[in-house]
Write a structure and sequence with these properties.
Elements (H helix, E strand, L loop, with lengths): L2 E4 L3 H14 L5 H14 L8 E2 L5 E5 L6 E8 L4 E9 L9
């Protein structure tokens, strides 16, 4: 089972997501965050499930439409660790870091 490490910047991503949900008065924003965290946890069992991205990174698609997010990560098999680098809404143009 792979170990999962979250980059410190992930806190900024969750803050941005929660701010966006608050601005749109979305009910139960904590459920959205929980869905993202549960999806990331899947990487511990299936670290290569995400679609291949640029420079050895992968993207885990989480949900869809207005509930959709993408987690950018890198898996290092030699140490069996997933490094989650950034999370964004599927509707955002790019990652703010990662």
């Amino acid at each position: 089972m792979a170990h999962i490490e979250l980059a410190p910047e992930i806190a900024d991503d969750f803050e941005r997501i929660l701010e966006h949900l608050a601005n749109w008065q979305i009910e139960r924003p904590e459920e959205r965050v929980r869905e993202i965290v549960e999806a990331i946890d899947i990487l511990s069992h299936s670290p290569l499930i995400g679609r291949p991205g640029h420079a050895g990174k992968r993207e885990l698609v989480i949900g869809r439409g207005s509930h959709g997010y993408v987690a950018l990560y890198r898996y290092h098999a030699e140490i069996d660790t997933v490094f989650v680098l950034a999370i964004k809404s599927q509707r955002e143009a790019g990652y703010s870091h990662g």
